[in-house]
């Protein structure tokens, strides 16, 4: 059993509970207790976004690509750490920072073009370029908008 709260004592580093681990993971405590860090999910990921993260535990890196919610990571895992695929994959949502090119009056709509859920729209404004508007209710946290952003202004984290 790994007590993540005690890891801070030795590493002097805060455990980021907002970090996106894997879709359909039951909860962080179950994940850290039962994940053997075997790497099967890393190899099974069709978009190769699952990487070895903090402590060797798998996590998602949206700078590589998006999650297609294929469920292969859960299917190959020998441990009971995943919910059924009929449930929501996670509570992760995108957020757009002020470093977005549109805030500097530069036209860019790459995030909206890549958003299949159409959660990112653009609000027209007088005397400037349209600003991105994120509908959190529509965002599924797939991360398609992250890797295409030229200024790395978009991140996905658990809410």
UniProtKB/TrEMBL annotation:
Keyword Lyase: no
Cellular component annotations (GO), alphabetically ordered: cytoplasm
Amino acids binding [4Fe-4S] cluster 3: 139, 142, 145, 149
Location(s) in or outside the cell: Cytoplasm
4Fe-4S ferredoxin-type domain span: 26-55, 56-87, 130-159
Positions annotated to bind [4Fe-4S] cluster 2: 67, 70, 73, 77
Gene3D superfamilies xrefs: 3.30.70.20
Signal peptide: none
Record key words, sorted: 4Fe-4S, Cytoplasm, Iron, Iron-sulfur, Metal-binding, Repeat
Highest taxon above the source species: Bacteria
Binding site for [4Fe-4S] cluster 1: 35, 38, 41, 45
One annotated GO molecular function: 4 iron, 4 sulfur cluster binding
Main location: cytoplasm
Complex formation: Interacts with the cytoplasmic NapA precursor.
Protein purpose: Could be involved in the maturation of NapA, the catalytic subunit of the periplasmic nitrate reductase, before its export into the periplasm.
Protein name as it appears in the record: Ferredoxin-type protein NapF
């Amino acid at each position: 059993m790994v007590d993540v709260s005690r890891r801070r004592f030795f590493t002097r580093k805060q455990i980021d509970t907002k970090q996106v681990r894997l879709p359909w993971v039951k909860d962080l405590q179950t994940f850290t207790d039962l994940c053997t860090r075997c790497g099967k999910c890393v190899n099974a990921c069709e978009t190769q976004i699952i990487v070895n993260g903090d402590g060797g535990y798998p996590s998602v890196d949206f700078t590589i690509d998006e999650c297609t919610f294929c469920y292969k990571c859960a299917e190959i895992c020998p441990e009971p750490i995943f919910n059924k695929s009929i449930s929501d994959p996670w509570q992760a949502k995108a957020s757009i920072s002020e470093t977005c090119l549109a805030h500097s009056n530069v036209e860019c709509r790459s995030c909206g073009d890549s958003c299949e859920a159409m959660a990112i729209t653009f609000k027209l404004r007088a005397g400037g370029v349209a600003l991105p508007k994120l509908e959190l209710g529509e965002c599924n946290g797939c991360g398609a908008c992250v890797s295409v952003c030229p200024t790395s202004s978009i991140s996905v984290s658990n809410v």
